[in-house]
Write a structure and sequence with these properties.
The structure is a homodimer of 244-residue chains.
Chain A (H helix, E strand, L loop, with lengths): L9 H7 L11 H5 L13 H4 L1 H4 L5 E13 L2 H7 L2 H21 L3 E6 L2 E6 L8 H24 L11 E14 L7 E4 L1 H12 L5 E4 H6 L10 E3 L8 E5 L1
Parallel strand pairs in A: 4-6
Antiparallel strand pairs in A: 1-3, 1-4, 2-3, 4-5, 6-8, 7-8
Helix pairs in contact in A: 6-7
């Protein structure tokens, strides 16, 4: 896995024109104060992660952003019949490929939950075309995973397992920040997050499904994509989704 | 919300007999080195969180533990018709009540994902009766939330919304640690986690459903609980669950 590492924090540079070193000797004094590469995107720093509290003095912000969910199909079934080691090796590989794909597109790998990952685009690194970055990251996940999966089947004894990835993407206004007074944990909430998650549930293994909102912003990359209607949990009206 | 704060880290004390101060003047030198109350359980410290890498020199461990999922019902529907502020106020309150209930029972609030929380019991603070701690925490969540919810309906304009909590609990061996080489994030994986999550999906608003494994360990607290069979996604055979 190769990922071009940024030498200074891209978020701090973009938003404050502040060169915060992330690696090497010059980063040492910063590290003493807890400023280091973010776990969610190593090209940004921990200041960016906590930008709400340390810079903006807010606990949460409302932003226009893209949310991506990717989920490993067949994982629940698989984890009943395989050793913890095999499952853990599989997830290591899956998280790594997702992380690389997301970070290449300047996204934030916000959460890993069992066999699923959730990413946000347009924060803290801004991109006017964040919807497109989300689609590119989703395609990179599919491409990377289908190559990586082949190398795992034999060593992990996973022959016959499905192990495709389903991806869902949606964009719009969402709340991002720390919810709850007592437990501090960065998360995104709102309909955008819920619908992205539901789109992911609707996607078949190997498929990427995006919403109308994504389709409107990324038309050139989705030419010829045929919309389908889905009845999604928690949404009364049928939802139109496009394969990407 | 009142929560008795521990003055020293309960995890470090229990496992290494090391008194790591969490609050006050004596904690300052520790804080300089990044040792502070954990975000996941303020009665433990950041050393405990990273115990794998700093103390045990492993990246993940296999432990016998209890996993609890709690989810706010009706949230997806609600977030379509209410302001971000109302939703965010609602989640603030929900996370806080869950955190208090979980921490009182020495659990780790490992993740918040949209309207759901995931907790682990028996790490880093050990409890031989962790299954019972999980059940007590679940009951505390239901009790706290049903009181708190009433105070929110009017100020947030949520009249008529369901807003009950569904809880699922399971226990057994799971892998806990950092998965993926590039993205570092503590998480638990394995069938125990999957089944706890599915039990939660099966629970109605206001209900707690526990597995056979929990029932076996906590019989005295579940006397008279009538088992029901459920067909759960990803599991071929029907699964027996007990209301707690």
């Amino acid at each position: 896995m190769t990922l071009r590492r940024s030498r200074i924090c891209k978020g701090c540079w973009q938003q404050m024109h502040l060169p915060v070193p992330l690696h090497g000797v010059v980063s040492v004094p910063f590290r003493v104060f807890g400023i280091r590469p973010s776990r969610m995107n190593p090209n940004t720093c921990t200041i960016c992660e906590l930008m709400f509290t340390t810079v903006m003095r807010a606990r949460k912000i409302t932003i226009d952003a893209t949310v991506l969910f990717a989920d490993l199909r067949g994982y629940t079934t698989l984890s009943q019949s395989h050793s913890q080691d095999a499952i853990s090796g599989l997830l290591d590989a899956f998280y790594d490929e997702c992380a690389s794909a997301i970070w290449e597109c300047d996204g934030l790998l916000n959460k890993t939950i069992g066999d699923a990952v959730m990413a946000v685009f347009n924060f803290p690194i801004r991109h006017a075309d964040h919807a497109r970055q989300g689609v590119l990251a989703a395609r990179a996940i599919q491409r990377r995973w289908s190559a990586r999966r082949k190398t795992l089947i034999e060593p992990l004894g996973l022959a016959g397992a499905e192990l495709g990835v389903g991806v869902g993407i949606h964009c719009g206004e969402l709340s991002f920040g720390e919810f709850g007074r007592s437990h501090r944990d960065l998360t995104a909430i709102g309909t955008v997050v819920n619908l992205a998650s539901r789109a992911q549930s609707a996607a078949a293994a190997g498929e990427i499904l995006v919403t109308q909102a994504i389709h409107e912003r990324v038309q050139s990359d989705l030419a010829g994509s045929r919309p389908r209607e889905f009845q999604l949990k928690g949404f009364e009206a049928p939802i139109t989704l496009y394969p990407a």
